[in-house]
Each structure stands twice: as C-alpha cells, then as structure tokens.
Amino acid sequence: MFLRTTLTQTSFLLRKKGALAAFYILLLMVLANFIGNVLAFQGLDVIQMYHPMKILLLSYNRVNYSADMTILLTQLFPILVACPAGFSLAREYQLGMDVMAVSRLGQRRFRMSRLLAAFLVTFIVFTVPFLLEILLNCLSFPLNATGDLTNWGYYDSAYRTAVDHYFMGRLFVRAPYLYAVVGTLLFGAAAGILGAFTMAVSSVIKVRYNVFLFLPVFFLLNLSMILGVMGPADRISLRWDENLLLFSEVPKSGWLLGGIFLLLAAASAGLVWKSGGKDCL
Predict the structure, then answer these.
(1) CA separation for the pair 115, 192 (Å, rounded)
(2) Cα 224 from chain centre
(3) pLDDT reported for residue 6
(4) Are 27 and 129 in contact (CB under 8 A)?
(5) DSSP code at position 152
(6) Furthest-apart CA pair in the chain: how many Å?
(7) Nearest to 49 by CA among 133, 139, 123, 151
(8) Is 12 exposed, middle or buried (0-12, 13-18, 19+ CB in 10 A)?
(9) What pLDDT is attached to residue 95?
(10) b/e map of 244-263 (b: 16 or more CB within 10 Å)?
(11) With b meaning 16 or more CB within 10 Å and e meaning fewer, what string describes 127-157?
(12) What is the dihedral of CA 203, 205, 208, 214, to 10 degrees?
C-alpha cells in the first residue's frame, strides 16, 4: 500500500503545474545551450574540438569559455528546486485534499509517502533534461574529442591537478561518458533531497503564503556560497555549485558533501515523522 501510494502520488505530482514549469524551463535551457554549442563548434576539426561532455549545461568547465548559461542555472536552481513538489503538502493541507488519503494510510504513512514522492518527482525533473543533453551531444559531436575548455594540454600538470579535484575523478579518466551520466544522476538526487526538504519544512511550519517556502533551501544554498567565498582559496570548497556541477576543478570533499545531504535527508524524514505524530494527537 505504501509503495503503491508513493507511485500514485509521484505520477500525480509530475502532472502538476509546478513540476511541468520547472521541467520545461530546464529543458529550454538545455536546448538553448545545445543549439549554442552547435553554432559555435560546427565544422571544427576533431583535434580542436572540446570533449562533448565538457560543454554540457551542467559542466562547471564551461565557465572557462562562456559562463552565461551556467550563471543562469545557478541563479534559478534555488528557486526551481522547490517547484516540482515542495509546495504539494502545504497546498493539500490548505485545501483539505489530504483527508481521504490520511484516513486510509494514517497521517505518518501518508506524509512519509509524500516525502518520498517529492524526492522522486524532483529527481526526475532535474535529471531527464540533462540526460537528454548528454544523448544529443553524443549524437552531434565527435566522441573522440578530448579538448578541455581551459585549453590546457592533456599532459599539462595543471590539467592533471584539475582532474584530480573532480568529484569521481578516477571514473572520469576511465569512462568520461559514464562519469557524466553518474554525475547527472547525483545532481538530480541532490535536487530531490532539497525538494523533499522544502516539503518537510512545510509539514511543521504552516505559512499563509507558499512563497515563503522558497526561503529554507534558498537560505541554505546561499549560505554555502557565502561560506565558500569567505574560506581560503586552498581549502575545501563549500559552495554548492562547485560541488554539484560536473568537471569542477575546485578542491572538494565527497565525504563532506555526502554527509551534508544525508543529514538533510534524515532531517526531512524526522520533521515529517514528528509532524505526522503531532497532527494525530
């Protein structure tokens, strides 16, 4: 019953305006980036061509060539991540639409299933457009191109240092295309946790206007940017964009990043579990 309810809610939320709006915005950005790449690199010799994965919208390596689309993505991400499912519980609570489901499953089970559905919906919305871009780039650009947008040579020491700082750098060296797919899935998972966290906050804090639910994730992500800027340049970066985007040559810690998102996931589950018990009293 729990799994079936979760899948039903996921399907329902994927058809809502918030999820569709976020999906189409990301899809338009992906297509704009792809078309720009085609126009910029058409007719380029394979020796001069950059690696097809390093010109993706999710590639941090793009800032060495053109940062416009990357900046737009990082500016919209804190807002878009809450749109697919972050408001779903608050909206149903305000309209009284959750009564029937709660009567069948119980408050806690219903809310936990909604939390999982929020994660899945946000994961799908923030994964599918970028996986589509990977496919388009593989079909449109030479797969044996190896260029880096920093224009460092393949055997340059600076390039080797940059690759060492990639998250899953060894995977990139062995299978760069698999690296891009796995990195995209991890980006979607991070977005899913943030979207679920927004929903969890709405379960314990009742707001009159849903726009205030943008604030928790917006605050967390911008705090990471502030802390990242304040720290010394040679230390591990705390900026979310330098940790989540692909091909980031900034020093980072995968253990720290994983710990932070596991903590957010646990906090989300705890908030929803607590709120469900409180509402049942």
Answers:
(1) 10
(2) 15
(3) 80
(4) yes
(5) -
(6) 69
(7) 151
(8) middle
(9) 47
(10) bbbbbbbebeeeebeebbee
(11) bbbbeebbebbeeebeeebebbbbebeeeee
(12) -80
Lowest mean pLDDT among 39-48, 49-58, 241-250: 39-48
> Which residue has 């919305």 as its token pair?
125
Residue type, 184: T
| Assessment of whether the complete model's pTM goes beyond 0.85 | yes
For the chain, strand residue ranges (E) read none
Any idea what DSSP says for residue 78?
A: H
At 100, list the tokens: 């029937």
Which among 196, 163, 204, 193 is positioned nearest to 53, based on CA atoms? 163
Length of the chain: 281
Half-sphere exposure of 143 (CA within 13 A, CB side): 9
* 277 vs 61, residue with greater confidence: 61
Q: Quick one: DSSP state of residue 59?
A: B
Q: Identify whether the C-beta of residue 9 lies closer than 8 Å to the C-beta of residue 117.
A: yes
Q: Distance (Å, rounded) from C-alpha 168 to C-alpha 204?
A: 37
Which pair of tokens denotes residue 252? Answer: 């980072």
pLDDT at 80: 93
Paired tokens of 74:
């990082």
**Can you tell me which residue has the tokens 């305006």?**
17
DSSP state of 252: -
Helix axes 128-140, 107-125, angle to 10 degrees: 20
First to last CA, the chain: 23
